[in-house]
Amino acid sequence: xxxxxxxxxxxxxxxxxxxxxxxxxxxxxxxxxxxxxxxxxxxxxxxxxxxxxxxxxxxxxxxxxxxxxxxxxxxxxxxxxxxxxxxxxxxxxxxxxxxxxxxxxxxxxxxxxxxxxxxxxxxxxxxxx
Amino acid sequence: xxxxxxxxxxxxxxxxxxxxxxxxxxxxxxxxxxxxxxxxxxxxxxxxxxxxxxxxxxxxxxxxxxxxxxxxxxxxxxxxxxxxxxxxxxxxxxxxxxxxxxxxxxxxxxxxxxxxxxxxxxxxxxxxxxxxxxxxxxxxxxxxxxxxxxxxxxxxxxxxxxxxxxxxxxxxxxxxxxxxxxxxxxxxxxxxxxxxxxxxxxxxxxxxxxxxxxxxxxxxxxxxxxxxxxxxxxx
Lengths: 129, 235
Description:
The complex is a heterodimer. In chain A, about 25% of the residues lie in helices and about 35% in strands. Chain A contains two helices and seven strands. Chain A has helices spanning about 5-20, 40-50; strands at about 25-35, 65-70, 70-75, 80, 100-105, 110-115, 125. Chain A has a four-stranded mixed β-sheet. A three-stranded antiparallel β-sheet of chain A has the order 4-3-5, with no helix packed on it. In chain A, a hairpin with a 5-residue loop joins strand 3 and strand 4. The longest helix of chain A is centred in the N-terminal third of the chain and has 19 residues, at about 5-20. Chain A is elongated, with a radius of gyration of 18 Å. Chain B has helices at about 15-30, 45-55, 75-80, 100-105, 110-115, 150-155, 155-160, 180-190, 205-235; strands at about 10, 35-40, 65-70, 85-90, 115-120, 135-145, 165, 195. Classes of the chains: A alpha+beta, B alpha/beta. The interface of A and B includes residues 76, 102 and 103 of A.
C-alpha cells in the first residue's frame, strides 16, 4: 500500500507549485496520468489523496483527476504493437512474442494543475512545465 | 526502469525518489561499491540465500548488508552471526525501502569500504518495484513454493529486474511448480531476462549465482573505469 506515499508526492508537487505562485494561491484540481503497468491502484490513490489533502488549506479543495493509460508494447518477435494483458500472459496475440519495448503504460506523472489566486479576480491559471 | 513518461508531463510523481536514487548511485560509484537490490515475497529465502552467499564469498570480495524490515532485526542478527557488517532499516508502516532511507547510510564506514553491498528489501512483490534505491542490479527471488503464476500476477517487479533466482529448488519434487512455464512467463515480460535455479539448503546452483555476482561486479568496475576515462579526457 504505497498509494499513500504517491498521494503525498502529488500533494508535495502541488504545494511546491503553489508556493512559486504566491501566498494566496490554492489548488482546484490536479490531473495525473497513470499507466496500467505501474503498481498503483487508482481507487486507493484517490482515497489516500482525499484523506490527506485537508492537512493543508491550500489543497483542501483540490480534486484529483486520474487518467489511466492502457499499456502498449512492441513485441520481441515482429515489433507488433499490442496491448500486454494478463489473460494472454502479456504475450503478443499475433505471434506469441514478449514485451521488447513498452511504449505506454508506465506513466506516473502530473500533467496539469489548476490553481486559483484569491486576491486577483478569480483567475484560473494553468501552470506550465 | 520505467520507460514511458508522458510527453506532456509537468513532473514525475516519484521524481524525488529517482533523484535520491541517482544521488545514492553517485556515492556508490565514488566508493566503487557494487549494489544489489534483492526483492521477493516474504519468505522466499532472501536472508538464507544471503547467508549462503556471504559464507562462500568471504575470500573473493568484501560484503556489507542493509536489511529492510517493517519490524525487528531478526534478519540482521543472522547476518551479524557471520561477522559481516549489517545495517538495519526498520520501515515502520512502510512496505518498501526508498532511496531516502538508504541515503541515510551512504557515509556508514563499512558501506563506503565494501566491494559488494546487498540490500535486502522488505518482503513484498508490489511496492519495492516502484522505488529504485541507487542499485547497480535488481534481483528478484521466486521460491518454487510460491507458484509458477507469480510473474503473471506481479508483472511490474519481474519486468523491471536483471535476474530472477528460483529458490528452494530442492522442494521441486514436492510441489507443482512448472519451471519451464515460469520461465516462459518471465520471458514474455522481459525477453532478455536471465534466470538461475538454486537451493540455499543443499548448495545446488550457488556457484552459478556467485559467478553471476562476480560477473556483475567485474562489469561494474569496467563501467566505472570507462566513465573515469571519459571524465578524464573531458578535462
